[in-house]
C-alpha cells in the first residue's frame, strides 16, 4: 500500500512538473512572439539547477554580443586560477635591494578597493627597483571604441596599476586630485573632453561639483613618477628581474575584487583579473593566455566555442551563446557554495547594477549579471522560484532600437512567470 501511494505521488509530481513546464513554455513563446521582439534577436535558455532539465530554449545555440555578461567567464577564470588572497607583487631581495614586478593586481591604492598591502611593503624598503618586461599585452582590448579613452569605464591595462589607472578630480571646496602627481595637469576649463587624447592633460569644468573620474595614459615613466611621489623615495627601473627565486606578496581578499567587478560591472577590475590569472600560469602577463587556458582546460566541453577577446565585455568582438552562459553558471553553482556565490552576484532590488531592477516581493529572487552596450541587453544568472527551486538562466537581446529600460520591463515579466509557476 505504501509503495502504491508513493507511485501515485510520483506520478502526480511528474504530471505537475510537466504541466508547469508546458505553461512556462507557452507563456514565454507568447511573450516573445509579440511585436516588441519582431525587430531584434533574442536567445533564451532556462535550466533547473538540480535536475538539469531544460525548461525553455529559444535560439540558445546561437551567438550573441554578451556585453558585460562576459564578466561571468572572467569570474570563472579567476576562481579557477587565483588564490583566496590576490598576488599583489612578485619580488626578489638581493643584498639591500628589492627588485619587484607587477602581477596585474588592480587594488594598489584603488580609489574604491583601497588596498595598501603593496604600498606598505614598498614603503618599508630602502632600495627599490621596478622591473618592467613582464607585461606582453596591449593597453586596450581588441575592438574597444577608440573614443572611450576619456571615460571612467575604460582605463588602460598594465602590469602595475596605480589608483585604478584613473585620476579622481573634485572640489571640496578646493580642487582635490588623486593621485596628486597629476594636480598640475588639471585645467579648469569647460569642454566636452575630460582629457587630451594623446597626453595626460585633464579638464575639469569650474562649475562642476561632483567627482570626475578620467583614465590616465600609462607608461613605465608615469608609473615610476607616481610611485616615487606617493612613496616619497627614488625608484630605479630595469627591464628584467635578476636571477633567483621570485617570492609573492599577497594582498586583498579575492572576493573583494569579484564583488566589485560583478556588482558595479567594473571593467578595469575584470580586465586586470585576467592578467592576474596569467601571473599564476606563466612568467609573462598576457590576458589571451588566460582565456585560452580556461577554454582549453576547464571549458573544453562547451557545445559552441565562444569568441572571447577581453575580460570586461567592452568589445563587440565577443560572441557567446546562451548555452555558453548557462554552462559556466552551472559550473560556478557547483564550484562555489550558494551563499558565497549569491553574494558575488548582484541581487535584484538590493545590490549593484540590479539595485533598482527585478525586485522581489520581500526578498531577492534574481541573482544575475547584466550586460549593456548600445542596442544590446543581456541578463544571465540564477532565479529562485516560489516553490523553492533554483533556475539557471540566460536571456540575450541584441540589435534592438528601443530603450533598454523597456527591454528590462519585458524581461522582468518573463522572470516573474518563471518565479511564480515553477
UniProtKB/TrEMBL annotation:
Domain of life, source organism: Bacteria
UniProt-recorded name of the protein: D-alanyl-D-alanine carboxypeptidase / D-alanyl-D-alanine-endopeptidase (Penicillin-binding protein 4)
Source taxonomy: Bacteria, Pseudomonadati, Bacteroidota, Flavobacteriia, Flavobacteriales
UniProt similarity note: Belongs to the peptidase S13 family.
Name of one Pfam family that matches: Peptidase_S13
Keyword Zinc: no
GO molecular function, one term: serine-type carboxypeptidase activity
GO biological process: one example: proteolysis
Transmembrane segments: none
UniProt keyword annotations, A-Z: Carboxypeptidase, Hydrolase, Protease
InterPro entries attached to this UniProt entry: Beta-lactam/transpept-like, Peptidase_S13
Amino acid at each position: 500500500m505504501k509503495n502504491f501511494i508513493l507511485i501515485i505521488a510520483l506520478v502526480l509530481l511528474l504530471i505537475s512538473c510537466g504541466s508547469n513546464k508546458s505553461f512556462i513554455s507557452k507563456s514565454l513563446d507568447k511573450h516573445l512572439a509579440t511585436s516588441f521582439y519582431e525587430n531584434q534577436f533574442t536567445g533564451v535558455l532556462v535550466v533547473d539547477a538540480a535536475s538539469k532539465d531544460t525548461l525553455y530554449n529559444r535560439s540558445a545555440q546561437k551567438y550573441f554580443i554578451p556585453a558585460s555578461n562576459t564578466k561571468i567567464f572572467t569570474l570563472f577564470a579567476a576562481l579557477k586560477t587565483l588564490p583566496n588572497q590576490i598576488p599583489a607583487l612578485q619580488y626578489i631581495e638581493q643584498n639591500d635591494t628589492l627588485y619587484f614586478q607587477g602581477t596585474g593586481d588592480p587594488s594598489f591604492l584603488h580609489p574604491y578597493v583601497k588596498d595598501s598591502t603593496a604600498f606598505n611593503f614598498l614603503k618599508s624598503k630602502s632600495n627599490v627597483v621596478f622591473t618592467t618586461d613582464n607585461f606582453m599585452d596591449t593597453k586596450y582590448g581588441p575592438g574597444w571604441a577608440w573614443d572611450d579613452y576619456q571615460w571612467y569605464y575604460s582605463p588602460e591595462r598594465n602590469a602595475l596599476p596605480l589608483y585604478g589607472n584613473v585620476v579622481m578630480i573634485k572640489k571640496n571646496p578646493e580642487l582635490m586630485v588623486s593621485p596628486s602627481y597629476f594636480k598640475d595637469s588639471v585645467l579648469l576649463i569647460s569642454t566636452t573632453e575630460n582629457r587630451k587624447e594623446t597626453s595626460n592633460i585633464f579638464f575639469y569644468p569650474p562649475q562642476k561639483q561632483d567627482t570626475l573620474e578620467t583614465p590616465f595614459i600609462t607608461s613605465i615613466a608615469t608609473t615610476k613618477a607616481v610611485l616615487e611621489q606617493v612613496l616619497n623615495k627614488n625608484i630605479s627601473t630595469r627591464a628584467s628581474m635578476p636571477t633567483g627565486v621570485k617570492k609573492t606578496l599577497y594582498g586583498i581578499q579575492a572576493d573583494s575584487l569579484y564583488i566589485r567587478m560583478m556588482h558595479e560591472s567594473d571593467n578595469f577590475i575584470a580586465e586586470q583579473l585576467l592578467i592576474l590569472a596569467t601571473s599564476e600560469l606563466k612568467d609573462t602577463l598576457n590576458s589571451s593566455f588566460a582565456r585560452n587556458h580556461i577554454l582549453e582546460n576547464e571549458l573544453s566541453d562547451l557545445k559552441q566555442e565562444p569568441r572571447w577577446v577581453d575580460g570586461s565585455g567592452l568589445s563587440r568582438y565577443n560572441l557567446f551563446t546562451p548555452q555558453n552562459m548557462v554552462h559556466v553558471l552551472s559550473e560556478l553553482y557547483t564550484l562555489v557554495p550558494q551563499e558565497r556565490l549569491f553574494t558575488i552576484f548582484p541581487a535584484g532590488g538590493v545590490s549593484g547594477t540590479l539595485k533598482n531592477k527585478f525586485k522581489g516581493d520581500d526578498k531577492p529572487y534574481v541573482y544575475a549579471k547584466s550586460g549593456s552596450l548600445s542596442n544590446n541587453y543581456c541578463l544571465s544568472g540564477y532565479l529562485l522560484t516560489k516553490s523553492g527551486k533554483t533556475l539557471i538562466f540566460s536571456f540575450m537581446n541584441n540589435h534592438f532600437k528601443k530603450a533598454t529600460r523597456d527591454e528590462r520591463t519585458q524581461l522582468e515579466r518573463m522572470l516573474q512567470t518563471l518565479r511564480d509557476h515553477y
